[in-house]
Amino acid sequence: MSNRVQKYLAPIIVLIVILTLWEGLVAALQIEKFLLPRPSVILANFAQVFIFEPEAASPTAAEPALRLTTDRLFVLVPAQHASSKALEKALAGQVAQFSLFGYNFIVVLGANFAPIIQASLFTLREALGGFAIGCASGILMAFATARWTITREAFLPFAIAANSTPIIAFAPIMNNWFGLDNPFSKMAIVAIMIFFPMMINTVRGLTSVDPRSLELMRSYAASEFEILFKLRIPNCLPYLFNGFKIAAALSMIGAVVGEYFGGPRIALGVFITQEAALFRFSSAWAAIIVACILGIALYLIILVAERLAMPWHVSFRN
Amino acid sequence: MQNPVVSIQNVNKIFGEGTINQVHALKDINLVIQPNEFISLIGPSGCGKSTLLRLIGDLTGTSSGQVTINNKSAHQARLDRDYGMVFQAATLYDWRTVTKNVQLPLELMKYSPEKKEARTRDMLALVELSDFAKHFPWQLSGGMQQRVAIARALAFEPSILLMDEPFGALDEMTRERMNLELLNIWEKTRITVIFVTHSITEAVFLSTRVIVMSVRPGRIISDVKIDLPHPRDNDTRESVRFFQLETEVREALRKSESKRE
Known about the structure:
The complex is a heterodimer. By secondary structure, chain A is an alpha+beta fold. Chain A has 11 helices and 4 strands. Chain B has helices at 49-56, 74-79, 98-108, 113-126, 142-155, 172-189, 200-206, 240-259; strands at 6-15, 23-33, 38-42, 64-69, 72-73, 83-86, 160-164, 192-197, 209-214, 219-225.
């Protein structure tokens, strides 16, 4: 087996095993739905699959009643119910259809698909806005502090102190300043959260330059400006991308947690708290999964950008 | 007579002057280097040979005395880009290919694209690395990296090449091959070289003059003229004259050791 296949196959197998165990144990131990919903129930929030039995498969008269609930991933439809009124309504959101072994499969969007996606996009916008503001200001501040030692000495102690404060505690204040429904209140929270890791990483990258490399530049009588562009900035790239990776993870967390303190109803954090308050934990779980996927997606985008920006780096050598 | 390339008069260098850790690194150094000379500075660890090289290259200042390079101050010479430097570590930039590394000084000196290409091509041919132009430094062996560093140092045609134990980190076999290549380059370019080394064999084989230094305080105790004919090759190393000169340098070094308290 090639290394690449192995690399991706192993975690996929682990995921399948975990989901199967989860599904099986929750059913076997009869754990209540509001404590821990089964994965299939969580997935039913996004989509349901209706499976139509072929005519011949159920010849007996004693048919079970058709149960149309929105919390089942797979819904088996006995042949004689195939044209019932209730079913027609349930199939309104059909997105795909296919046949397998004589069975007809119809995939329908789940009840919470649209609200969760809408909420995710809203929250993603907040996270990205905060990411951009936080990274830009952190990097700018880092350049200023790296260039002028006096700014570094003046600001770095505060930066380090602020870095150890629970910045999320500022969330209610930001909501107060900018307004609960204004996405900028969440962007501000995200920006504050990622400002310090971004700044500290960038300062380190700009200043921890090999002294011999600096001496080489000195021997060419290079200006500070040339040293910045030809040595300090390329040297800083690995540190910068480390900062971006931390910031990407923090930005989704910051936006969602910021919304826990209040926000418009179409936001992911608000959606999760509301669903949880109404004991609809499977949809809360579904929203959490989407938040998690978005966080991973941001991280992966940065990994790809890193590879493109510095193919020479030690971590990409084979 | 030609103007000397380097003229050092009564130079002293004291580190941590006035503190309890005061070290008299160089004491009353006088040295004149003519164009096209290949000078080796040799001596025990801590004799200040690297410091002397750094003084010449204006990477550090003198405590007293005068360093004159091409009739100007060392500082002015650095601003005029009179120096090519090669350190013990190749100090190539990881993010630049071999070609881009060689072009670094040329970019800073605003060479035209055509001239830049031509110089790079010539330099890589000189150090026999034309086939590796597009490689990154980490894809090269230690000896090859050092050759790139030499190509980079020579690319902008400096008047003096300063080398601080450039082959110190290489194994004996590679070092001997690099010595031959450096001599080859020097015979082609006749650039003035100041070369710091620990190795007596290396110093005698490469140089036209070997300056022997002693420790604490660092001073010049012997100036050995190496009259081996050029071009030199592997047979030179086995000649009688080579052995005599090697012995002369070794005895000078031993004398410096015995004087040490």
